[in-house]
Amino acid sequence: MSRKLQADLLLIFCCLIWGATFVMVKDALADASVFVFLALRFLVATAVLVFIYGRELKRIGPSGFRAGALMGLFMFGGYAFQTAGLKLTTPSKAAFITGFFVVLVPLLLALFGSRRLSLWVWLGALSAFAGLYYLAVPPSGLAALNRGDLLVLGCAFMFALQVISIGHYTIRFSPGALSLIQIAVTSLLTALCVPLFALVGAEPARVVWTRGLLFAVISTGTLATALAFSAQVWAQQFTSATHAAIIFTLEPVFAGLTSFVFYHERLGARSLAGAGLILGGILIAELWGPTPAAAES
Asked: 216-271 pLDDT, tens per residue?
């Protein structure tokens, strides 16, 4: 089996795991506040990766630590916005809005790197923006917009920056060490936010130790974080970021399926149309737009 095929299969498996965790995280937030859950999740992930990749830190150097820390900063922002948004919106909507990051990547590259975008990219972005409106904005207008959907949109921006940074650094430094550093930084930042948000009264720290919460923390910490993000960093060495971005469109599909199975969630006609426009825009931008989502491998 070629390395490229292995990379594709790993990315598909990652999308399956990430998509399934939307429902799990939604349930876990009934037993823990946002940053308590995130701190537990990333602490577990950090412990796993220290055991696997701890020795590689000796060979990465100061510039590699800075690269991993930047990736971790974007990851922290993405998960903070996404998890907070999940308290106020449904798993399917959160997943499709998160998937919007695939279109944001070439737009941000063009904005900061002065790259010209093709007509296909602009058409894809327009379709995704229209889909986002239909998915997130109710028929009564912007005044009734769900605050959770806005928070998840912030998550999409953070994940777009994370994918760009991964594409830039993964071919220069050890993928294992980068994975460990970015997740350790995220763990540190989420842990610091627990007392900080409690002190300012934004979110009191809360945790109720139930079997469901323990299962969610262990599952998301090991499978969805430590192993899945390590697999993503490794896989992007052997496939183009554009190709990887197309595979990432499977994540909201898997999330919608798991939400339907476990929550019996059914999107209305307006939301389905919005989800379809987002997926269509992502595919148009990534299949026909020549601007890569990040540096090609």
From this structure: 999 999 999 888 888 887 887 777 665 676 677 777 777 777 777 776 666 677 77
Q: Which of these, 210, 182, 225, lies nearest to 71 by C-alpha position? A: 182
The residue count of the chain comes to 297
Q: Amino acid letter at 189?
A: L
Can you give the pTM of this predicted structure? 0.80
- Under 8 Å CB-to-CB from 162, ≥6 apart: which residues? 71, 74, 75, 78
Q: Where are the beta strands (DSSP E) in 148-290?
A: none
**What distance in Å separates the CA atoms of residue 178 and residue 171, rounded to the nearest whole number?**
11
Is residue 213 within 8 Å of 28, Cβ to Cβ?
Answer: yes
3-state secondary structure of 124: helix
The structure tokens listed for 43 are: 């602490």
Tokens of 162: 């994370």
For 26, what's the count of Cα atoms within 13 Å in the CB-facing half-sphere?
A: 23
